[in-house]
């Protein structure tokens, strides 16, 4: 039959493609047009339930593959298999997918796949929690900063502690991701105690919950007092350097301009 | 006359507002809806010429105040004065305005202004060069990273060198902003030499020019060889940690998942 000769009438001739898409802090207001286009183009959207819910209107009418929070490996394998079978797949992360997100794992799994080289992959950046939280607080990241996750699920605590120590010693502003969870309620205090060896107890500290999304809350305290705040897994903690100050209720690290 | 009694008929009754807006890497494709709305709402747009050109269609029909690259202080003062006189002002930065951008300086100038407390300010985050460059290279920022500017215009070189040293010692991935300019052609080599005390010469290095905008170019080399690349002021340099590898031509720092 003539129809069989048409391209695509046997199913896809070759592998599909994967976009690893950063949604930004959460709301559709924070998602770039490029991210939106990548989702609109996708036939299959793969992600953690909470992220899929953030883009419900875009997910509607598409096949959605949902896994639990710790199902990252399964999620990426599924995305690669679907793309290898010809689908256009979007893997979604909140924030930027390249900052503690899904991009690295996906590229690792892709490189190990027999058809990995044939699948086109694009990483679509997004506004990451560090800068979304900074914007809510003022401008604490105007000078050199270090981004550290306090989760020891994949990294030994000794490595984390060493990084905290060096970052504090070199007067970096510190941005802490995954600052506290039920499994490790004490990490934030241990991190604070390391930093206190190098910084004054009145060094300003900003905490933002749900940065850039509905229910955003921001506080400014100092190293002495911030542990009393309701810091959790949807919080980002920013610890000032020696120059950071509070100006009219905003956290500002001067870049050094003479005024 | 009755009309005179209408609100606003004498000009604005009080101060206006300022949005410090991150344009993202450059193209309108990378600007969030929230950033676009802030620009649409503005009566006056203040910025460096190159950034204004990136948003020509949005700037059209609005008053535009342009200053040179080193006119940051004048730019922020002008923005604050205009807002104090009642205008809705947008100050634009490429990338994220809170990362070596205009947000901090603006808040400093605002805090020193007699009407500063009355002016409403919003910082609108954008996709910063670190993650736009990372996306172009693969996924090098999947683990803890340090962001360092090599510009010594406002920071003594000794401080920069000390931060490079500590970040290298603690095995952070390094992101270098302002990596090279005519005024300091040698900083990048000096930075590389510091890092080489802690990292193997074959450590992968990624360089991206014009990340996320027209004319984007990306290269992957190593600490031994990357200085030959055409690194300039519109480039971002990402230096891998001890775990970073090149997979199918992409730069990936594994997070530590067992595959």
TrEMBL record, chains A, B:
Organism lineage: Bacteria, Bacillati, Bacillota, Clostridia, Neomoorellales
UniProt-recorded name of the protein: Cobalt-precorrin-3B C(17)-methyltransferase
One GO process term, biological-process aspect: methylation
Domain Tetrapyrrole methylase: 18-221
A Pfam family matched in the record: TP_methylase
Pathway: Cofactor biosynthesis; adenosylcobalamin biosynthesis
EC number: 2.1.1.-
GO molecular function, a single term: methyltransferase activity
Residues in coiled coil: none
GN (gene name): cbiH
Keywords from the UniProt entry: Cobalamin biosynthesis, Methyltransferase, S-adenosyl-L-methionine, Transferase
Keyword hit for Protease: no
CDD domains: Precorrin_3B_C17_MT
Gene3D superfamilies: Cobalt-precorrin-4 Transmethylase, Domain 1, Methyltransferase, Cobalt-precorrin-4 Transmethylase, Domain 2
